Amino acid sequence: MNSQEFINEIAKLKPSAEELSPTHSDELVNLLLNSFVIQHNSLQGSSDNPIIDLIKANDISLLNINDITFDPDLYEDEEFIFFGWDINDRLGILKSNGKIVAYDGFSGRIMFWCADNSSKFLDALVEIMKFFREMIVKDYEEDERDKRAVDVAYIAALKAGGEQYEDYYKSVLGID
What we know:
Elements: H1 3-13, H2 17-20, H3 26-34, E1 39-40, H4 50-57, E2 58-59, E3 64-65, E4 68-76, E5 80-86, E6 89-94, E7 100-104, E8 109-115, H5 118-137, H6 142-160, H7 166-172
Antiparallel strand pairs: 1-2, 3-4, 4-5, 5-6, 6-7, 7-8
Helix pairs in contact: 1-5, 5-6, 6-7
């Protein structure tokens, strides 16, 4: 998936205020709706990497995909191009092979391998955002939510490049 396809998919997933109003306060409705916001800016992405293009060409500072957030700018070191956060871990592109990782800066180690490449990571994030949308629109029992989360983690892992990424997506969805 390229950056524009990702933007289009997120826009399609954004619920209406009316869908959220029956079960959420006005303040929470606004907060939840802002989680889907991607605003185009004047800069243009021109790399062959969809995540880099997404960040360079858009303001995605409000976008929140189940606690995955994006930085307004990229940060590079010798090994990584960092582009966001998964709660406490930095999300980065490993320069040597283009794989996406969750990196713990305190311990200086990769905590999770997240995807084969940026395109596949965006594919997986769309699956996570679909689930996030379901959770804020529907009222699931905890057992049903957990079962659905396990299924979504597996699907996201396959979109990311294979079952080896399933632990990461289980972590993102709060599944032990």
